């Protein structure tokens, strides 16, 4: 079977079966745990400063930019509706032909400072940049391959320009890195022969070199987000995934690494054979989110979700009419949803080949930014509040502040709040607005009035609470 066909089949299989989609934590009783050399490095969340910072950032932007932006989903006159960054695979384009696109790589409208301003205005605290996607084209002048920006008409170090510009705006840079490399002759999907082993060993050395190069050239990078790690070849080399994490952590103290990199001694991914999360945060929530009532287990570890604006386009696709495109409010709701369950959210952008952004993405960034400017205090540094989910929206919490983020205004004009035992609501104030009336209607149940003038967009109410409220109140339990 040729490589590209194999790619298609692999993708189809995991989309159909959800193989990598539902990485699950399955905890074994402690006495049944097996000993692992390449399992979780730690139990529970990391609590150091760098991890706290990662967590407090909460909102990020993904940038998927590579050669695939040039054809934008169209090959030889045919438009493919699948993800644009997979076009090489959909259209079965051989690598040498695909890499010819490098001759056209000249983003004349690219201005890193403009990109950074746009991110700043949107209110994102970090960007995740595709240093190298599955196609194998590198946005930095890597010494270890010719498939880089250096050998395009643009020539300059795109990644370096971006890192500097984002950092200058106070925005953290995270690196997306695809281990799977469709253009490297030594990449293998599986290891079946001694020849495969030898080739894959060379490939892993090449990958180590590229990663060391990235860590050395761009020491301000805060995070590596690995992708393209689902093939049997990598699952059979779990030791290597543990080694990469260690290597990067030695080179860059504090760096954070996603769970998607890792496979344990038995090829188990994300969560090891004992059910413990590997890497620093779970990265399986992609284009979907945990259920706010049923999936509260996610609040036990750090996690980061990412989402596309159309149904499933990461790289630039010229035709967004082929699938549903989320509105800014729908994107915003997903951001809040993630934070309300203790996660981060990364919103994807697929810049055009000329270095500009499509207008839909510019509008999205501006709209989210306007909202964040006013209401960002319910996002940054916020976490799961632990209060019972209500139909009007989501709770988030920062220390003593509990935020109600309202997406569905009720006809009753009352927002029902149920507090945990011993917690009273003393006062409610619209963020950027006035105080609203709170009425205790039952024990641990309140009606918070809608603002007199419906804000007409999702809004936030900040609650002042008393958590040491005495049990002696007006209520007695029903005798039945
Ligand atoms: C991968 C890439 O193939 C895709 O092009 C994009 O870069 C995205 C962010 O990551 O796609 C995946 C990888 C893993 C899952 C789903 C899609 N998963 O585990 O659910």
Give the full name of the CATH homologous superfamily of the largest domain.
Glycosidases
| Overall CATH architecture of the largest domain | Alpha-Beta Barrel
CATH fold node name of the largest domain: TIM Barrel
Shape: globular
Q: CATH first level of the largest domain: which class?
A: Alpha Beta
Q: Compute the number of strand runs.
A: 17
The fraction of residues in strands falls at 15-25%
Question: Could you give the order of strands across the largest sheet?
Answer: 7-6-5-4-1-9-8
Structural class: alpha/beta
Taking the alpha carbons of the first and last residues, their distance comes to 70 Å
Mean pLDDT across the residues is 94
Query: Biggest sheet, in brief?
Result: 7 strands, parallel
- Residue windows where pLDDT falls under 50 for at least 5 positions: 8-22
Work out the radius of gyration. 24 Å
Q: What bound compounds does this protein have?
A: 4-nitrophenyl 6-deoxy-alpha-L-galactopyranoside
Number of helices: 11
Q: Work out the count of structural domains.
A: 2
Describe what you observe in this structure.
The protein has eleven helices and 17 strands. Helix 5 crosses helix 11, helix 7 (194-217) packs parallel to helix 9 (238-251) and helix 10 crosses helix 11 (359-375). It is an alpha/beta fold. The strands form four sheets. It has a seven-stranded parallel beta sheet with strand order 7-6-5-4-1-9-8, with helices on both faces. Mean pLDDT is 94; it is low at 8-22. It has two domains: 49-378, TIM Barrel (Alpha-Beta Barrel); 393-466, Golgi alpha-mannosidase II (Immunoglobulin-like, Sandwich), CATH 2.60.40.1180. It binds 4-nitrophenyl 6-deoxy-alpha-L-galactopyranoside.
């Amino acid at each position: 079977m040729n490589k590209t066909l194999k790619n298609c089949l692999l993708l189809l299989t995991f989309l159909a079966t959800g193989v990598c989609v539902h990485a699950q934590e399955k905890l074994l009783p402690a006495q049944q745990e097996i000993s692992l050399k390449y399992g979780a490095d730690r139990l529970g969340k990391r609590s150091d400063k760098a991890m706290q910072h990662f967590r407090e950032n909460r909102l990020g932007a993904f940038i998927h930019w590579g050669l695939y932006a040039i054809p934008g989903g169209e090959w030889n006159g045919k438009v493919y509706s699948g993800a644009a960054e997979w076009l090489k695979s959909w259209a079965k384009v051989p690598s040498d032909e695909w890499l010819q696109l490098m001759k056209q790589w000249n983003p004349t409208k690219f201005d890193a400072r403009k990109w950074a301003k746009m991110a700043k205005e949107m209110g994102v605290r970090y960007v995740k940049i595709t240093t190298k996607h599955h196609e194998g084209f590198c946005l930095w002048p890597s010494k270890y391959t010719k498939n880089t920006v250096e050998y395009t008409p643009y020539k300059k170090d795109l990644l370096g320009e971006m890192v500097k510009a984002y950092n200058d705006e106070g925005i953290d840079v995270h690196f997306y890195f695809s281990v799977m490399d469709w253009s490297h002759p030594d990449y293998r999907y599986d290891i079946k022969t001694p020849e495969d082993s030898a080739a894959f060993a060379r490939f892993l050395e090449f990958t180590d070199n590229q990663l060391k190069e990235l860590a050395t050239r761009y020491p301000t990078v805060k995070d590596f987000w690995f992708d393209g790690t689902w093939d049997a070849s990598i699952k059979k080399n779990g030791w290597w995934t543990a080694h990469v994490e260690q290597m990067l952590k030695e080179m860059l103290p504090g760096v954070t690494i996603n769970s998607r990199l890792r496979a344990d001694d038995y090829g188990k991914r994300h969560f090891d054979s004992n059910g413990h999360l590997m890497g620093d945060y779970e990265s399986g929530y992609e284009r979907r989110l945990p259920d706010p009532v049923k999936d509260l287990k996610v609040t036990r570890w750090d996690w980061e979700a990412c989402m596309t604006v159309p149904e499933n386009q990461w790289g630039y696709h010229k035709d967004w009419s082929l699938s549903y495109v989320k509105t800014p409010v729908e994107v915003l709701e997903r951001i809040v949803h993630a934070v309300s369950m203790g996660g981060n959210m990364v919103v994807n952008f697929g810049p055009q080949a000329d270095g500009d952004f499509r207008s839909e993405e510019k509008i999205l960034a501006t709209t989210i930014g306007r909202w964040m400017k006013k209401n960002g205090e319910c996002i940054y540094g916020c976490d799961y509040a632990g209060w019972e989910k209500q139909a009007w929206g989501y709770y988030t919490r920062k220390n003593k502040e509990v935020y109600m983020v309202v997406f569905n205004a009720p006809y009753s004009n009352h927002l029902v709040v149920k507090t945990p035992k011993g917690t009273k609501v003393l006062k409610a104030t619209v963020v950027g607005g006035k105080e609203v009336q709170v009425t205790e209607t039952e024990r641990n149940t309140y009606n918070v009035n809608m603002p007199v003038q419906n804000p007409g967009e999702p809004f936030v109410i900040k609650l002042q609470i008393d958590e040491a409220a005495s049990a002696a109140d007006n209520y007695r339990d029903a005798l039945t």
